[in-house]
Design brief:
- By secondary structure, the protein is an alpha+beta fold.
- It has a single domain, classed as Clam (outer membrane lipoprotein receptor (LolB), chain A).
- It contains four helices and twelve strands.
- Strands 4-3-1-12-10-9-8-7-6-5 form a ten-stranded antiparallel beta sheet.
- The radius of gyration is 21 Å and the shape is globular.
- The N and C termini lie far apart (53 Å).
């Protein structure tokens, strides 16, 4: 019996640390380290929506994102965006400890991407699982599907202006309408809402198209 206990302790002290050391994907860590140097960014924002019961004109704003603070807008009209649609640096995804699972690779438009699952290990995280497509050559994320605990599922498809950019210039956000709980009093001027269609049966989905330009990025100073 003593011999088995000694063997169990050896397995826990020797093997488990090695498993933990490999529990986060190395390519994702490289991308996270690249993202972590962004302290703040400001960009001009153009927004369009594709929601069956909402007819909304194009909106424009200036947004400012600072690490650890809510996103701010400067606009003549209110801009309605799901909070997940603005998390370009995926700070919320990396806020609490997590592990990853390698799901292989996937080809999109002739380009090969690595696919991984991100699973939080802290119950304070606001999502249960996320699936990421990693561009391991340019060290950035091209797509994320995030299953939140309260706000349904979001899919962010990101496009970049060139191979050097760390932040996208175009983002397509897909989401579930019911889960999003759209604040209809705040969708902005010039917006028409078909309330009959809105209250119709069945799951409704929507898309928001974001276009960013004139980025001003503040990076963390090297020690």
């Amino acid at each position: 019996m003593t011999r088995y206990l000694i063997m169990l302790v050896w397995l826990l002290t020797v093997c488990v640390p090695k498993l933990n050391a490999q529990s986060v994907d190395a390519d994702l860590l490289k991308i996270k380290q690249r993202m972590d140097v962004i302290e703040q960014f400001t960009a001009n924002l153009k927004l369009d929506v594709d929601i069956s019961f909402i007819n909304m004109p194009t909106k424009h704003a200036v947004m400012t994102c600072e690490k650890g603070k809510p996103t701010k807008f400067s606009s003549d009209d209110f801009v309605m965006i799901p909070k997940r649609g603005l998390d370009f640096t995926l700070n919320k995804l990396f806020e609490y400890p997590f592990i990853t699972v390698d799901r292989g690779t996937e080809t999109r438009n002739g380009k090969l991407y690595k696919v991984i699952n991100v699973i939080p290990t802290d119950k304070r995280a606001d999502f249960s699982i996320a699936t990421l497509l990693l561009d391991t050559v340019n060290l950035r994320i091209t797509e994320s599907e995030i299953n939140t605990k309260k706000d349904g599922t979001y899919i962010l498809a990101m496009k970049y202006e060139n191979e050097e950019m760390i932040l996208p210039n175009r983002v397509e956000v897909s989401f579930e309408i019911e889960q999003m709980k759209i604040p209809l009093n705040f969708v902005g001027k010039g917006t028409d809402i078909d309330r009959k269609k809105m209250h119709g049966e069945g799951m409704k989905t929507g898309k928001i198209f974001l276009q960013m330009s004139n980025y001003r990025i503040k990076l963390r100073k090297a020690n």
